[in-house]
Amino acid sequence: MRFGIKTLDDFDVKGKTVLCRIDINQPVDRASGKLKSINRIQACVPTIRELSEKGARIVLMAHQGSDIEYKNYYTTRPHAEVLSNLLGFEVKWVEDVCGPTARDEIKNLKDGEVLLLDNVRFMAEEQTLFETKLCLSHEEQAKTQVVTKLAPLGDLYVCDAFAAAHRDQPTLCGFEQLLPSAMGRLFEKEYCTVSALMEEPKRPCVFVLGGAKIADAFQMMKTVLSKGSADLVLTGGLVANIFLASQNVQIGQGSLDFILKSNYGQFIDVARELYEQFGDKIVLPSDLAWVSDGKRCEAAVGEIPADISAVDIGSRTAARYREEILAAKTVFVNGPAGVFEQEPSELGTKTIWQALADTDAFTVLGGGDSITATEKYKLTDKIGYICTGGGALIRFLSGEELPVVRALRHGAMIGEK
Ligand code: 3PG
What we know:
The chain has helices at residues 39-53, 77-87, 100-107, 128-134, 138-141, 145-150, 170-173, 185-199, 214-226, 237-246, 253-261, 266-278, 315-327, 347-358, 368-376, 391-397, 403-411, and strands spanning 17-21, 28-29, 34-35, 57-61, 91-94, 114-117, 156-159, 181-183, 205-209, 232-235, 282-283, 287-292, 295-300, 312-313, 330-334, 362-366, 385-387. The protein is an alpha/beta fold. The chain has two domains: 8-184 and 401-411, 3-Layer(aba) Sandwich (Rossmann fold); 203-360, Phosphoglycerate kinase, N-terminal domain (Rossmann fold, 3-Layer(aba) Sandwich). The strands form four sheets. A six-stranded parallel sheet has the order 5-6-4-1-7-8, with helices on both faces. It has a six-stranded parallel sheet with strand order 11-10-9-15-16-17, with helices on both faces. Strands 13-12-14 form a three-stranded antiparallel sheet. α10 crosses α12. The mean pLDDT is 95. Bound molecules: 3-phosphoglyceric acid. 3-phosphoglyceric acid binds next to loops. 3-phosphoglyceric acid binds at residues 23, 25, 66, 128, 163-164, 167, 390-391.
């Protein structure tokens, strides 16, 4: 038991049917049906292998795609193939979530075998819009189709989906009402590492916040600055542009139009207030970059042409951020400093990521774009801890109690059948 949650060490799983929720949500190339990255699938392997070697009958539940931002659901079939290759034995797959076909497959599992169900979000009750509109309690989630059909077939529920721990959905929070529950090894590692770091970060503790997930970034910044967890926040990406706009600095009409068109105008006021309160700890870019005729151009803040769109921090800012990262003892990173996918606008992100590799500080990074940048610069081995979660990590660092953590604590009190 750790943090009031049971772990795999608390159960003898031999011959038991384990309902295991994982997060293997990956970018998919729809034309070929192939997964563009498999990092989250790799991260789940230790739990699945351990359960299989201990003789459990493993039923994997997972989602692929999101209804809110992207409307891009996809089957989990390719994931079963990747998992089979990683584990070195067949992972069965069924084109069903909790109907008769899935239930028959579950009943036929033998010790050590693994079955992956199709995308749980094909069930309406598992969708994020359902979660945010209906706000079902965990007790109510235990009465949904997916939980009432599958829970009777399981002996134990294991959640290894830290990356989805901020979601209040039946396959994440409903089973813990009915079955003894534990966190998987990945969940345990992620939750314990990040909790320990947040409790007592080694100082100076620097946050590097960029990217375009604005509401999350501002929420997190407010918390870590008010709680004193962050000694310094280095801003990049859209986050920096919003701060600069809040100080009436010219960021180019294209940048401003983008902020307003994306409904982020409200954050200009939030940024102004934060800067008034914590201006000594928030570092804004001193120069910015834009692209003209395919070439990178830069100017100091205050000399930015009115008609451009800023796509990166400038090289002076990047050099300053590198110095701060080298001098830090702990660094959290969320979001790139610019449009790193394209060469003329990657300098800021590339410099920061190289600094993460060079610093002696403990570095923690999470979120889809940050992980993609790490892979692009081949620095995966150089980062202290790469969290599979983006939204979950941000909400955790924002001080929110994650719904899945609350549910698992409840599940820890349910005895074995
Ligand atoms: C993620 O990609 O952050 C997790 O898989 C959760 O996905 P969601 O934001 O679509 O719920």
